[in-house]
Each structure stands twice: as structure tokens, then as C-alpha cells.
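Exercise 7. Given the components listed, write out the predicted structure of the assembled complex. Treat all entries as one system.
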Amino acid sequence: MKEKDIIKARDLDFFYGRAQALRHVTAAIPAGRVTALIGPSGCGKSTFLRTLNRMSDLVEGTRVEGSLTFHGEEVFSPNVDVTELRRRVGMVFQKPNPFPMSIYDNVAYGPRTHGRWNRAALDDIVERSLRAAAIWDEVKDCLKKDALGLSGGQQQRVCIARALAVKPEVLLMDEATSALDPISTARIEDLILELREHYTIVMVTHNMQQALRVSDKTAFFLLGELVEIGDTETLFSMPRDKRTEDYITGRFG
Amino acid sequence: MAKGRRRRAWNLLAAALPRLGALVTVGLLAFVAGYVLWRGLPGLSWALLTQEESVLHGQVGIAPCILNTVYVIAVSLAAALPLGVGAAVYLTEYAPRRRLAAAVEFAAETLSGLPSILYAMVGSILFCTVLGLQKSLLAGSLTLAIMTLPTVIRATQESLKTVPRSYREGALGLGAGKWRTVRTVVLPSSVRGIAAGCILAAGRVVGESAVLLYTAGLSTAMQDFSSLSGLVKASGSTLTVALYVYAKERSDFTTAFAVATVLLFLTVLLNLTAGAVGRRR
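Answer.
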């Protein structure tokens, strides 16, 4: 069974003003799989992740050259409806960022934004999303509670539920567990493996063990360049590029 | 030996001077407030606060002035709030170029530093004469709205800036547009700061006298607030102007000091409320 690649980058260059953050990145993200982006700080992996749903637009003075397509359509074309793109390609951030509202309102925020107002339908979506994020049992009796009153790990799972509530195809995770304790991290890693069936996940991680545990495909970035991309086990056991080998064995980074 | 003692003496003096400064400041405040209360409390009565003035019945009442003050606070805030919050939202969330935003901010800051007598003149020419409102509370309120605009803008801006960037990113990442993000996530989080700014603006309005003297009129009679035309035409003195009228024009110092006492209480109340509202988080 050939995997379909739903996101393709070809010779993608990205500039913050005059500084070039991504150089000739060519990569394919397969559907229904977990792809990890690894590399030392400042290598461009987060920048690349943010181009996938155009969150990079939030910074002034950025420029893109080359091609980045989602289902064959150019992501950076001026005709693209960015809000719809961001619905289909959702994001979970490094530091859990629930809104200062109830858990229910947090998860319902996305659907309400996209026009769903029916109370019964929203109840259903909220329950479904919280279940998918493996946190329904913990919060089902206190959905009206302020989301900021939850622990870090719980907040992050609510954020994941919030992202899932709009039924995205792709979930981007920008070091989503690096601010959490080991137990919460483990729970979210399990969650990622569960979500894998139904979503395409692209995750940035500093933690190579995490990439090994959780991902199917790994991409190694260095100084804005995509050095190597391939099957996770292969990349970690028999890296093709010396720089990859140096990074994996801890010689730098 | 002598050096050690001199240093100790110097330290004592250096510690004593700020303390003295603080004492003098508090003392002055206590003196002013105390004097006002001493002269004003005897003249203060429930009758004074709820009656209107009547030469026929030989009674003095400042109820009309209290109502006029409420009118001016309400109308000036109603005008300043949407403009001020709108400007602040534009400056913080939308301004595409730093240069434009800086220019608008500079204009707002300069506006807030202008002497109030200038507003009085401009207000009286613009609202009373050119726009035909004549001497009225409405003209006074609109002038005050312009005067308090910078306060509202600044308070709103500060409040918006304390909303963490991560909230905006979270909303935008879910596919919300910019206005929706501002309306549903950023503004609700800033309501407290905006409210505190409004109360501070109200405090400025209460304390303003020069502007109202020129634009709103001196009457201490009860105004007709029952109809729309009555509201537009109403012209009278607020508490601060009434103080001037009673003291200067009628030499009724008892009532003047009573009004001063009411103003004192009102100002303290507004400041305390602004502090409490802004702080509770």
C-alpha cells in the first residue's frame, strides 16, 4: 500500500526579513503517520512546522520562496483561505495555552468559530474531543470549571482536545511535551500513538528518544537545511549523513 | 573616631529626611481634607443632597448639581469609551506600521497634557457655537470626552498588552480571524483594566471645572431630563462648578464647603474603586 503524502515541500526557502531560516527544504509528509522533526536549537524545525499552517504569517516581514503544497494546493498562494487552512491543519503549542474560559468553552471555541452553534451538537463535539484527548473521565463532571485551574498536563490535553474539535486532518505539535513532567509526557505520547490512526501528526521534538518511541518518519534539520529525512528506525540506526550521525550520538546539539 | 560618629549622624539625617518628606505630604493631605470636612460637614444634610434650590421656600439644595454631574460622567464616558477602546485595539492589534502607531500614540499623549482651559475654549467654540449646542451639559460632556480619551486609550492599551500572546496564537491557530480573536479572547481578558481606566476617566470628569464653566453653564436649577430635547438642551452646573457659584457668586460658604465635602468623598470613592477593580485578578 503506497502511502499518500499530503504535505509536500519543494525547495522551500523561508526568510525572516533578510535572515534566511530555511534553505531549499524538500520533504514529504505522509498521511496517517507521525513525522518527527528533530535538530538542535535554531535549526529551523519550528519555523518549518509553522509554515505548514501559515502561523509564520504572524511575524512581520517574512518571505517564502519555493513550493509548499497541502493536498496539491499551494499553501502560500494569496487565494488560500487561511482560517480554513488552520482548521484543517491544527496546532498544539509548547506551553499549554488554554483560554481563560471554562473547559467546555475552550473546546467549543473552534466549532463555534466555524459556525456550529447548536447546543446539542456542541455537547457532542466537546465530549468526543475530550475523549479523543484521553481526558474526558477527568473533567466530565466539571466542564464549567476554568481551564486555567487544571494541571499542566491536563491543560495540554485540553488544548489537544480543542485542536481536535474542529476535525483537522493534520495535527502539528510544537514541542508539545517539553513543558510537562515525565508522567504527563508519557500520557501524551500514548495519546499520539492512538491518534495516529485518524490524523496525520507532525511533531517537533528536542527529545530523540521521544522521536524514536513515537514517530514513523523523522526529519533532521540543521542550520535551516533539511539534512536527512526517512524512516525513523533507519535514520537512527543507519544515518546516511555524517551530520545526522553526529547529532544522534550527541556530539553536538 | 569622629569620622564614625559623623557617618552615623549623616545616616540618621539621610534616613530622617525622606521620612520627614512623607510626613509633610500626608500632613498636607490631612490638613486640606480635614479643613474641608471641618467647614463642610456641619452644612451637609440629607435635605441638601436631595432637594433643589428654591428662593420661594428659602431652601438650598444641590440635588440638581448631583444629577448634572451624573449626566456629564455618563455621557462623556459613553462617547469616550467606544472611541478610546477602538483606538487602543487598533494601535495594539492592527497597526501595520510602527510609525503610524507611534504618531497616534504621540497625539494621544500630547492631548492629555494640554491645559484644560484650552479644551474649555475649543469646546465652547466647537460644540457651543459651531455645532449649535449652546451652553449645555451635552457640549460640556463632549468636550470632556475628548479630554479623557487619552486616559481611556492608555488604560485599554496597557490592559491589552497584558493579555499573553499565547492566547492570540491559540485562537488564530484554530482558524479564528483577527477580529474574532480580539472580540472573543483578547477583549474579555482586558475588561478589568478597561473598567479601571473608565473609572479613572470618571474621576477626571468629576474634578473638571474650567471646561464646564465655559461650556455647560452655571445654573443650579433642576434641569429637564425627561425628554430627548430636554436632555440635549439641559444646561447647568456640576458639583465643581456649583462650588464656584456658591463660593464666588453667592458667598454662601457653608454650602460651598458642603459641596467640597461631597466632592472629596466622591473622589476618594472613585480612586478606591478604580484600584479595587484593577487589582482583583
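Discussion: Chain A has one domain: 5-248. Strands of chain A lie at 5-16, 19-30, 34-38, 62-70, 73-74, 89-92, 170-174, 200-204, 217-222, 225-231.
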